[in-house]
Amino acid sequence: VDAAVSDVATGGGWTEGGQSGIYRVVVRSGGRRDLRSDVVLQWLRWDDRQEQPIEVTSVPIRELTRGGIIVTASRIDEEDGRTVIKLPIANAVTGATGEARIWPAAIGRYRARLKWAGQDE
Predict the structure, then answer these.
(1) Cβ atoms of residues 98 and 116 within 8 Å
(2) pLDDT at 54
(3) Spatial separation of the C-alpha atoms in residues 119 and 121, rounded to whole Å
(4) Residue 30, by phi and psi: left (phi above 0), alpha (psi -120 to 50) or beta?
(5) Fewest CB atoms within 10 Å of the CB: 19, 35, 37, 121?
(6) What pLDDT does 92 receive?
(7) What is d(CA 82, CA 63) in angstroms, rounded to the nearest whole number?
């Protein structure tokens, strides 16, 4: 296991182009000197010939690549019939907390929103 991986969540479901599968979000810590988290969203598909799902594609969540944003956990839920990934976040410099929400879309695409505590909608 990659020692930098700090959290993994798997869930939800997708269907596109005759394929179907699940989502996985992988959070890697930047380390002691690089105060940030790298978050990757993966589309996985099932193959009848294999026990484990196969990775279709992975995309970095660019909104979380700025230095100082740390992801403290991850969870995949369903809201209003859609998969949503919820990531509690913290700013390592200011201490501000918040939540990132990621809505997977077509393979390799997503929509993201970061909301900091005290920020109006």
Answers:
(1) yes
(2) 94
(3) 7
(4) alpha
(5) 121
(6) 85
(7) 20
Apex 18 CA angle, 55 and 20, nearest 5: 45
Query: Which tokens hold the place of 114?
Result: 């970061």
Residue pair 71/64 in contact (Cβ under 8 Å)? The answer is yes
The parts of the chain modelled with pLDDT lower than 50 are none
For residues 45-82, one letter each, b for 16 or more C-beta atoms within 10 angstroms of the residue's C-beta and e for the rest, the string is beeeeeeebeebeeeebebbeeeebbbeebebeeeeee
Count of CA atoms in the C-beta half-sphere (13 A) of 36: 12
Distance CA 45, CA 9 (A): 15
Round to whole Å and give the CA distance between 104 and 70. Answer: 21
Cα separation, 117 vs 98, whole angstroms: 5
